[in-house]
Amino acid sequence: MDLKTISLSLPHDRGYDIIIGEDALLSLPDFISSNFKDYRLVVITDNTVKRIFYDNLIAVLSTIDNNVLWLSFNAGEASKKISTIETLASQMVEAGLTRQTLVLALGGGVVGDIAGFLSSVYMRSVPFIQIPTTLLAMVDSSVGGKTGVDLPQGKNLIGAFYQPSTVIIDTLFLETLPVDQFQQGLAEAAKYAIGLDASLFDFFIDNVENIKNLEPDILMHLISSCCDNKAKVVSGDEHDRGMRHLLNLGHTVGHGLEASSGYKFGHGDCVSIGMCVAARISVMLNMISEKEEANCNDLLKRLGLPNSIPKGFSSDNIIKAMKHDKKRLADQHIMVLLNGRGKSCVIKDVDENLIIKAIEALS
Ligand SMILES: NC(=O)c1ccc[n+]([C@@H]2O[C@H](COP(=O)([O-])OP(=O)(O)OC[C@H]3O[C@@H](n4cnc5c(N)ncnc54)[C@H](O)[C@@H]3O)[C@@H](O)[C@H]2O)c1
Of all atoms in ligand 1, which is nearest to the CA of residue 110? Predict the structure, then answer.
């Protein structure tokens, strides 16, 4: 199958290509030879991804002469902390890595966020390539240059906007991804369909089973449509000051739910429920019809995602957690709401009582 290339344009020649398809990884050696011939390489990954894909990447890199160092950490969100950055940077210094180093971020969103942030600060910045291995990272986190780590006070509180040199999305990585992780990525993919792209919405409706069965051409279309949407939004608003907020559909309430569960619920599950709350509020404000709300809920349900608030969660807890969100402005609840099929807008100062009513309607 042919590879697909999406170009993300940015000022000052910082744009890059997103290369998508089965065996896209095979394009990596040529990209390195053409752009980073004399660089040393460091693969940053987690232990799970390293165990599964070490031989694979070693074989791909065997065609070029660059010296390769592998560094890994425990899989999971708990590694996304500043001490991991310090440990990795120290290991790189000890291995003699200078500014002439290219970082390869091989893994899911946790690896991409850590390796990207490390690249932005190591010796005042070195280039990096995103090689996402989860669906969430393929459709969302590997594109757009948001990098960072968590603090005990909350997620992603330290970080930088730092763009990769390219993103290589090899859909074959998904063959080993556990089904529940795949589902979490589907929620982020559905976000583009519900909030930004009516034709992707239709595609989803027609292909739910094909998507779940990992049909190659269907996955290719799904991932490239998401990346295309994300690339357009990021090109227009790299630093998240305007239209990039639209990518937060489902995330305001979603983050509240995720935080009040002590991060035990999957991010995608929480975003799915958050999108249902946003759809309910949109109906209450006469921005979409009940039929359009039902279409969103049905799609999420068919994808196997939740669309009601789990037992034991009160609107009080969720609202309290929402108030800790770093994206909140003063005392306002800023939310992305729906105003049509595949259409959304940012509404500032959503009435808290409406949010409570919507949460209660879904409880
Ligand atoms: N930077 C951004 O724009 C952005 C956007 C959305 C989310 N994020 C971040 O992404 C993170 C979540 O990413 P995630 O869901 O990919 O989680 P993750 O990186 O923790 O990966 C999930 C699990 O899947 C394993 N795994 C990865 N690829 C695999 C494969 N191909 N086969 C088998 N197992 C595999 C990992 O080892 C891990 O255990 C969060 O920290 C979130 O904040 C960042």
Answer: 19
